[in-house]
Amino acid sequence: MADPSESTDAEGTPKRSRWLRETVVVVVVALAAALLLRAFVVQTFFIPSGSMEPTLNIGDRILVDKLSYHLHGVDRGNIVVFRRPADENCGGQPVADLVKRVIGLPGETISLTTGSKGYVMINGKRLDETWLPSSVQGKTFPGPAGKPYNLAKPYVIPANDYFVMGDNRTDSCDSRYWGPIPRSLIVGKVDLRVWPITSFHFF
User: Fold this and answer.
1) Active-site position among 49, 51, 111, 172
2) What tens digit of pLDDT does each residue of 155-170 get?
C-alpha cells in the first residue's frame, strides 16, 4: 500500500513537500508582519521603576501605539514612551526608553505654586491634574537647583519640546531634572496596560 504522505497533487508535486513549503512561507510572512508591527505600529514595554506609581507599577507591561502621533498631535495628560534624553543622569541602571506623562506643551509657561503645597501652573493658571490620586495632589516641587527648567521659577517650554513628569511626583526623575524632551524622542503613546492581566486597563 502506498504511503499517503507521499501522494502527489494535480501538478505532480509530493504533498509533503508542498505542505512544508507552505508552512515555511506562512511562518516567514508571520514573522515579517510581527517585525513590521513592532517597528511601526505597536510595541510592548516593561516598567522598570516606580516613577509612574500608582498609575503604572514596577513589572507592569504596557502596549504603546507608535503610529498615533503620526496622525495627530501630542496632548497634555498623555502617557508617552520616549528615548532616554542625553542629559538624563538620575543614577541607577540607565535604560534606553523612559515613560512619563505629558504636562507642558511647546510654547507654554510652566511653573509651580509657592508655599507648602506644590501645584503645576500652566500660563499662570493652576492645572487640574485629574489623573493624579488625591494623595499626590499638591506634592509637585522643584528639581535640583541651578537649572532653568527645575521650576523654581517659571519656565517657557521651547518649540517642539514637551515637559514630562512622573505621576509619583516625590520620587520621579523627570523634566524638572533634565529638561523637556524634543518631539523626535517620543516613541509613542501608552494605550494599554496588558500585564498583569488582573490590572488590564485602557489609558
Assistant:
1) 51
2) 999 999 999 999 999 9
Q: Is 51 a catalytic residue?
A: yes
Catalytic-role residue among 100, 111, 172, 175: 100
Structure pTM?
0.79
| Burial (0-12, 13-18, 19+ Cβ within 10 Å), 133 | exposed
First to last CA, the chain: 62
Number of other residues whose CB lies within 10 A of the CB of residue 165: 26
Using an 8 Å Cβ cutoff, are 151 and 142 in contact? Answer: yes
> In sequence order, what DSSP letters do the residues of 80-140 get, joined into one string?
EEEEPPTT---SSS--SEEEEEEEE-TT-EEEE--SSSB-EEETTEE---TTS-TTTTTB-
Entry field: residues in the chain: 203
Closest CA to 88 of 191, 190, 170, 166: 166
- Residue 43: count of CB within 10 angstroms of its CB: 17
Amino acid at 96: A
Decide if 153 is catalytic. no
Q: Is the pLDDT of residue 8 over 60?
A: no
pLDDT of residue 24: 56
pLDDT tens per residue, range 41-73:
578 888 989 999 999 999 999 989 888 787 788
- 62, 193 Cβ separation under 8 angstroms: yes
